[in-house]
Automatic annotation (TrEMBL):
<protein>
    <recommendedName>
        <fullName>Transcriptional regulator</fullName>
    </recommendedName>
</protein>
Length: 82
C-alpha cells in the first residue's frame, strides 16, 4: 500500500476577522452580511475553522472591506498542514 501525503492550506481566520473588526465590521455586522447565526460567527472568533463555503464568503467580505491586497496577503500567509 502506498501512503499519500495531502497538504492543505489553512487560512489564519483570526487575523482575517481582526482585519474586518479594524475596518468596523463587528461580529454582529458580519452575522448580518453573511446571513448566519451569531453563534456561528462567535465560533470562528474563538478559533473554529469555517466551512469551505463560509470561508470563501468571509474572504469576499474581507476583500470588500479590507481591499484585494490585504486579502491576497492573508491567503499567501496560509500555513500548510497535513
Amino acid at each position: 500500500m502506498t501512503d499519500i501525503l495531502v497538504l492543505v492550506a489553512r487560512v489564519h481566520w483570526l487575523d482575517v476577522l481582526a482585519d474586518l473588526r479594524a475596518t468596523g465590521v463587528s461580529g454582529y455586522r458580519l452575522t448580518n452580511i453573511m446571513l448566519t447565526s451569531r453563534s456561528t460567527v462567535q465560533s470562528w472568533e474563538k478559533g473554529s475553522e469555517p466551512s469551505h463555503s463560509y470561508g470563501i464568503a468571509i474572504l469576499e467580505v474581507h476583500t470588500r472591506f479590507c481591499g484585494e491586497a490585504l486579502t491576497a496577503q492573508r491567503v499567501r500567509e496560509a500555513r500548510l498542514v497535513w
